[in-house]
Amino acid sequence: MTAFSPAAWYAPDAQRNTSWIQRLTADEVASFDAALAHAKATGKSFLKLAQEDFPLSPAARAALDRAIAATQGRWGMCLLKGFPVGKWTEDDTRLACWCMGLHMGVARTQNRASEFLNDVRDIGVAYKTRNGRGYNTNAALDFHTDSSDVVALLCRRAAKSGGESKVVSSIALRDEVRRRRPDLEPVLRQRFYFSYQGAQDPAQPPYYGLSILGNHPDHFAFRTNRKNIVAAQADFDTVPRLTGQQQDALDLLDELLTDPQLCFSMSLEPGDMQLLNNYVTVHSRTHFEDYEEMDRKRHLLRLWLAVPSAQALPDDWAEYFDDVRAGAVRGGLRGAARPEAFAVFEARQAAAMGMPLRAWTPGVPAPASAMAD
Length: 373
Hints:
Layout: H1 11-16, E1 21-23, H2 26-42, H3 58-71, E2 77-81, H4 90-102, E3 106-107, E4 118-120, E5 150-157, E6 161-162, E7 165-169, H5 170-180, H6 185-188, E8 191-195, E9 207-211, H7 226-235, H8 244-257, E10 264-266, E11 273-277, E12 281-285, E13 288-289, E14 299-306, H9 318-321, H10 340-353, H11 368-371
Parallel strand pairs: 1-2
Antiparallel strand pairs: 2-11, 3-14, 4-14, 5-11, 5-14, 6-13, 7-10, 7-12, 8-9
């Protein structure tokens, strides 16, 4: 049984105590290099690759295990430094990132195109537009949580300036709400409605509802994305209107999330992999200025992962996550283009990780009785 022990932390805590940072050794780096060469030699497509196609030394595998364990522990985050992206091509880095995910969990699709490994870089699109997604812009992002147990970002290149990652402990955030406006804590446990921003399966409605502050009796869980709440209010007449108290609660979150005592900033350098637990941290990014040259522009690779050590989720989150059992395959955005090959991959990878996987049925989350199994 996994011991879930995330705790509240404040920005000065993360500045002083850097136990959330881990560094690869030379031998571990050599193992990742050798595993990459092996994976390339197989000639397999991403969805046909398995753990044995990216064979790691015990020490290198342990480095990934420690990183995932850190996301489930006190900090809810890990910065794993030292991947040799400077000598890897873009294709090499993409392959290595995907294969590392095979040792950590089950990848989830992330957008309306049902992509399972996303490029985070500015392609000139707008962020705050209907169905806009921030990862393809250079804009400062609203604080939010992603749609998976863990988000992993591997940095290939940093921006010319800006693009700092900002992370807040959502447990500390809850504590500050409780301290400043205790009347608003129960409001955050009410149902809020979020737009899918067009990234849902065609069989799903365009929005979903859940509590921002989860009601699980044993595990803290927090999920927010005000941009998507605002979009649901603007785009769908069938969504209940926000009450005055709900507006006040969202305004308070916005105020607290930028409080320098709560908000910790870090700069991702080439070769860094940042991993965040989406149930106990909230994250953002500052605006960035890029280089003119294409081969110098900011570029990160993003994986959304379901991981076997993840906590149980509140029952009312089943509409969105489908399966709220601890360690189950869940989350992601299905999109409109999931290939059959992804379903085959998902089943094989779930078995390799020892994770339960239930068949997805549109609009039918697993019943509460099944969740308790």
